[in-house]
């Protein structure tokens, strides 16, 4: 069945099919990393939320709206950021110039020109003192002071001094940092676990090749080819790929001779390179491009949703965004269109997706 829209009619905007660039997840970016799921700001549009059935559950009223994290969503109301719960109640009043999402119980917020952290009650737990601040991961958050990056714990204590030119979020107990013209990997004590060899680098596109370890491995670029290292810095899958994504669901998408396939953690091609494009597995399925159209395969390489989409993204909450003839929809894992709308929409998170709408004058 198709999604229903209580009281509101969603109107197609002229740029509804544009794809939006993902930014580097380095500490020190000019805007909060968590803002990337927002597509654009348009003064003629407002944002609200729908559930996985396409029903509007929080009426469109916000200038901008981010996905839910830990039960809260950032919203821009009147040019300032606050937080709502899943009932649409404003739990933390909009008073911040900028804000990040909740992670591990805290959210970064900007007061005047400095960043600090609030809890779910809106209490300032770590006073605004940083030039920039990112979300907590593995109990640590990357912060910037005087153009140097370090890490604090949830009490605000600087546990890794700000000495790095660039620093990235912790993942699986490790973080990549840049100092003295090379990448190193540190642990939660700030100790260098290993240095990347001079000819190696890591990709910084969040959402594709992340800046952290995933499932014990990390994709790196060495002398023009992609391979994988383990968490000790040992090359475990030799660099032989034209491109590669990090591991998700036990498999990694790789590109060889302009065709995409998938390898396992032994580096074996378990799904033969045969696709014009491919993305990582999410919730057991991956979008692939075959003969100019996107469909979905399972981890056995079986085509479970026939290629018929112009654009196809990964699954979140059992829904995946697809585009056909400039029309946006969300399908289920059978390939049935469950929600068909003309709007900007974020991926689903915690059962809700932020959408931008215009209210019809005919309602």
Give keywords.
36 strands; four-stranded antiparallel β-sheet; Methylamine Dehydrogenase, Chain H; single chain; mainly beta; 363 residues
Strand and helix layout:
Layout: E1 46-51, E2 56-62, E3 64-69, E4 72-77, E5 80-84, E6 90-96, E7 98-103, E8 106-111, E9 114-118, E10 124-130, E11 132-137, E12 140-145, E13 148-152, E14 158-164, E15 166-167, E16 175-179, E17 182-186, E18 192-195, E19 200-201, E20 217-222, E21 225-230, E22 235-241, E23 243-244, E24 252-256, E25 259-263, E26 269-275, E27 277-278, E28 286-290, E29 293-297, E30 303-309, E31 311-316, E32 319-324, E33 327-331, E34 337-341, E35 344-345, E36 352-357
Antiparallel strand pairs: 1-2, 1-36, 3-4, 4-5, 5-6, 7-8, 8-9, 9-10, 11-12, 12-13, 13-14, 15-16, 16-17, 17-18, 19-20, 20-21, 21-22, 23-24, 24-25, 25-26, 27-28, 28-29, 29-30, 31-32, 32-33, 33-34, 35-36
- CATH-assigned fold name: Methylamine Dehydrogenase, Chain H
Q: How many structural domains? A: 1
Sheet with most strands: 4 strands, antiparallel
Helix count, DSSP H or I runs of 4 or more residues = 0
Instruction: State the low-pLDDT regions, or none.
Output: 1-26, 28-40, 205-210
> Structural class per helix/strand content?
mainly beta
- Calculate the terminal CA-CA distance, rounded to whole Å: 23 Å
Into which percentage range does the β-strand content fall?
Answer: over 45%
Number of DSSP-assigned strands:
36
Helix percent reads under 10%
Global morphology: flat
CATH architecture: 7 Propeller
């Amino acid at each position: 069945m198709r999604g229903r829209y209580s009281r509101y009619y969603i109107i197609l905007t002229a740029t509804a099919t544009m794809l939006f660039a993902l930014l580097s997840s380095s500490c020190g970016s000019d805007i909060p990393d968590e803002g990337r799921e927002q597509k654009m700001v348009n003064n003629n549009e407002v944002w609200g939320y729908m559930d996985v059935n396409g029903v509007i559950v929080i009426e469109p009223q916000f200038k901008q709206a981010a996905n839910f994290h830990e039960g809260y969503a950032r919203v821009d109301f009147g040019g300032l950021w606050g937080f709502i719960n899943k009932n649409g109640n404003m739990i933390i009043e909009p008073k911040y110039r900028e804000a990040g999402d909740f992670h591990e119980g805290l959210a970064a917020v900007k007061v005047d020109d400095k960043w600090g952290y609030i809890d779910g009650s809106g209490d300032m737990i770590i006073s605004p003192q940083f030039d920039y601040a990112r979300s907590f991961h593995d109990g640590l958050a990357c912060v910037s002071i005087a153009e140097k990056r370090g890490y604090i714990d949830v009490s605000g204590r600087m546990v890794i001094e700000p000495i790095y030119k660039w620093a990235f979020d912790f993942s699986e107990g490790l973080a990549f940092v840049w100092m003295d013209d090379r990448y190193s990997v540190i642990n939660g004590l700030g100790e260098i676990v290993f240095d990347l060899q001079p000819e190696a680098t890591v990709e910084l596109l969040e959402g594709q090749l992340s800046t952290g370890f995933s499932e014990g491995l990390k994709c790196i670029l060495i002398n023009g080819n992609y391979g994988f290292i383990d968490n000790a810095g040992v090359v475990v899958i030799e660099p032989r790929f034209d491109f590669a994504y990090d591991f998700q669901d036990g498999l990694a998408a790789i590109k060889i001779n302009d065709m995409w396939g998938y390898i396992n953690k032994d580096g074996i091609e378990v799904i033969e390179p045969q696709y014009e494009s491919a993305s990582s597995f999410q919730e057991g399925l991956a979008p692939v491009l075959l003969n100019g159209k996107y469909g979905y395969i399972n981890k056995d390489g079986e085509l479970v949703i026939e290629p018929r989409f112009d654009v196809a993204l990964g699954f979140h909450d059992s829904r995946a965004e697809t585009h056909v003839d400039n029309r946006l929809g969300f399908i289920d894992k059978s390939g049935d269109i469950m929600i068909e709308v003309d709007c900007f929409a974020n991926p689903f998170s915690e059962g809700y997706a932020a959408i931008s709408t215009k209210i019809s004058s005919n309602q």
